[in-house]
């Protein structure tokens, strides 16, 4: 069996420098965003995701409240509503991803 020859990398790898990837820029914006700015931008891009998250949290909270008070039928209904709200949130995320990928195509 033949022994493989030495492998020579085409570009030197320096741990102190980030690798250069063709067609990729690490920041699309000229200045780094703060959390609040990024949150507002993301909500404007896909407003259904925060609505779904809020609906999920509301159904969970009210369901737990009803469970604590002993209203088992209402609690079960709220847990089923929570599952529906989670499904809505996942669907909103997937639709947002599809729309974003379609926008980025030339």
Automatic annotation (TrEMBL):
Presence of the UniProt keyword DNA repair in the record: no
Main location: mitochondrion
Alphabetic keyword roster: Membrane, Transmembrane, Transmembrane helix
InterPro entries on file: Hypoxia_induced_domain (IPR007667), RCF1 (IPR050355)
Cellular component GO terms held in the UniProt record: mitochondrial membrane
Pfam families: HIG_1_N (PF04588)
Biological-process GO terms, alphabetical: mitochondrial respirasome assembly
Residue ranges of every copy of the HIG1 domain listed in the record: 20-106
Transmembrane parts of this sequence: 48-67, 83-102
Location relative to the cell: Mitochondrion membrane
Top-rank lineage group of the source organism: Eukaryota
Protein name: HIG1 domain family member 2A, mitochondrial
Protein species of origin: Sapajus apella
Highest classification ranks of the organism: Eukaryota, Metazoa, Chordata, Craniata, Vertebrata
């Amino acid at each position: 069996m033949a022994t493989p020859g030495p492998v020579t990398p085409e570009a030197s790898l320096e741990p102190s420098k980030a690798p250069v990837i063709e067609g990729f820029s690490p920041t699309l914006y000229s200045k780094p965003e703060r959390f609040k700015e990024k949150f507002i931008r993301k909500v404007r891009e896909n407003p259904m995701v925060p609505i779904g998250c809020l609906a999920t949290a509301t159904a969970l909270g009210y369901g737990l409240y009803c469970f604590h008070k002993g209203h088992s039928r209402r609690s079960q209904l709220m847990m089923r509503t929570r599952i529906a709200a989670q499904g809505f949130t996942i669907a909103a995320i997937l639709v947002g991803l599809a729309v974003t990928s379609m926008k980025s195509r030339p």
